[in-house]
Amino acid sequence: MLEFLPAPLVGAIASLLMLLNILFWVPILLLVSLVKLLLPFKRVRLLIDPLLLRIAEAWIDGNSGWMRLTQRLDWDVTGINDLNPRQWYLVVCNHQSWVDILVLQHVLNRRIPLLKFFLKQQLIWVPIMGLAWWALEFPFMRRHSEAYLQQHPEARGKDAATTRAACEKYALVPTSVMNFLEGTRCTPAKQQRQQSPYRHLLKPKAGGVTLALDAMGEKFGAVLDITLIYPEGTPNFWQFLQGRMPRVVVRARTLSVPQAQPQKGQDSQQALRDTCQQWVNQLWTEKDALISSVLDKKALQPL
Known about the structure:
This protein is of the alpha/beta class and 303 residues long. It has one domain: Glycerol-3-phosphate (1)-acyltransferase (3-Layer(aba) Sandwich). The protein contains 10 helices and 8 strands. The strands form 2 sheets. Strands 1-8-7-2-6-3 form a 6-stranded mixed sheet, sandwiched between helices. The chain has a two-stranded parallel sheet with strand order 4-5. Helix 4 (129-135) links the parallel strand 4 and strand 5.
């Protein structure tokens, strides 16, 4: 709607509207979450958690509003029509940009329960937003390197404990547990460092999926597999705010929850890890082929 304005001005307007939306909803979110903090009882949580989710959904509606006002964006979306907002989902997706989060929230808001992201521990210090993520009980993960863990073995397993604690809370109210399986945003440099076997993706990590399924696998009604594609190139956040992301392709499909079948002499934990790793590898092979088909189709379109 505002595409006739210079791109930097559009970006400034979008940034202001996004900030105003944050400043309106986050204090409400914190006030309500304070009740839960002061009265840490299950009965209170069962009353407060749905209210917090409704507030977050209204916040996302506000983001969708300023996006519609400032962005001239072609949404090419399939696979989201038969989702259930009262069902637990394990959501997996490829990761290319911070824009991914706004895209996912816009497309999935009120179609499934609120997405709960696993965040880096440092993000808790982001002004205002860190408090909002804390209030919504997004797990903060430290993600220590293997070298650090060798020097500090006492830190090993802490992220697993954080994940299990979060999932125990999520089991009370329908939730969508979100996992970017690559663990970081995909770039050509990272692909090269990893020697990734995929054209468009980094290697997937099964650890988050394994922990989520181990903690609350019986709660998940389905896996929601999302593939995000930016045919004109992956935008950074400022490019997006300026309206310089003309098109996004979102392909969603609902899958059965992986089920581990222990082999003779194999314990259930190892069986689950092996099953999840094989599952994510196959998933990523299919996802890479899908991205290639979408991009190849675009390349063949006449100018």
